[in-house]
Give the backbone structure.
Amino acid sequence: MSSFRVHSQGPFTAPLSGAVEVGGAKNSALKLMAATLLAPGRSTIRNVPDILDVTVMGQLLERLGCQVRITPESSADSAATKPRLTVIVEVPAQLGHEAPYELVRRLRASISVLGPLVARCHRASVALPGGDAIGSRGLNMHMSGLEEMGAKCHVEHGQVIAKVDHELRGARLGLDFPSVGATENLLMAAVLAKGTTSIDNAAREPEIADLCSMLTKMGAQIEGATTSTLLIEGVDSLQPVEHTTVTDRIVAGTWAFAAALAGGSVRVVNGIAEHLDLPLDKLQRAGGEIDTDPDGFTVSFTNRPRAIEISTLPYPGFPTDLQPFAMALASVSEGMGMITENVFESRFMFAQELARLGADVRVDGHHASIHGGLALSGAPVEAHDIRAGAALVLAGLAAVGTTTVSHSHHIDRGYPAFAEHLRALGADVERS
Ligand code: UD1
């Protein structure tokens, strides 16, 4: 089992310094790969992160009958950091419609083949997905939306089975909660449905806007991308496309929190500050300085941060994926930090691991209060999911001694070359 080993003398003893370049968003690239299924022919997705989930999604598309080629992009990246990928998908006229358990269980995003398969094949059998241990992650909105559009959906033997008897038709859909995955699946079904679909209370994450932009290039008729009401006029067919993935705002935000936890100054090249309005505002309130430039932004902390209050919410609220970093930061900040988690009920499992480093976190339902200003000390800890794992590595930068984060394969799923990037910023981090 591989791990990250982080050595530190405590917060602000070895401030970070330098620049880190952020590539395409995992949570966009995987959905863009699924969206290629909507048009027969060769589609090309660029700026795809070099992570295992991309390989697994490629294997899933192959199982559905596509040919997939994943190649490194030539780039000016230093040899220490992994290049980005180009993914070329040849989509056949006749697709398979079964997404098997052995692949789907390995990543949550595989559920996003459901909408395209229903749209193209009028039937789909997709195993219930796996992914991170952060909460129950229901699929009721995905299924009820497809049913409103004329599909019959049920779960049988661990598979979501969807079948359209007559035609997939546009419908007025309203989501109980702006679910990212449900919005994506219903959008991808609606672009090839007959007539008009509206999705009210749709998610507005930048990754949805990226998907809308790719679908529009493929010939889809979509209004309201970036708003909470999507209006889609179905078309008979779509064309293959070339598309470049939007920058990963969660990875960019992670580097912003790294500067806050370790101290110092980190320039986040390609970071899109407007996708991180609230997190950057919170970091400023914590005492950081944020400077934006045409190619990204820089976050600098010269003094120990002040405690902040955060409440996770769908975009443009504070992202749940950055919540563990905020908790780690609160544990070394001056004062009492408060966090409310409104999206995934099990995300506070992270608090137990943080406590091993000496953090004082009290959890009450979906609220956590963090008594800050304590001296953290290095210890063996375990990564339970991508973000919690990365947050433990960053907490290690502020803990005296050695922190060993095991189960680091979780971190690799979201952060290509994380250790190399940290070392380039001056952190004492190694893989073992
Ligand atoms: C995506 C991201 C994840 C991010 C999350 C919220 C991917 C692969 N993952 O996950 O990193 O943290 O958005 O920004 O893109 N829900 C239901 N029923 C449904 C659908 C969702 O109850 O039919 C609930 C979920 O259990 C969860 C909440 O809604 O509590 C949010 O889920 P959703 O927005 O769908 O997140 P994902 O698409 O799974």
About this structure: The radius of gyration is 21 Å.
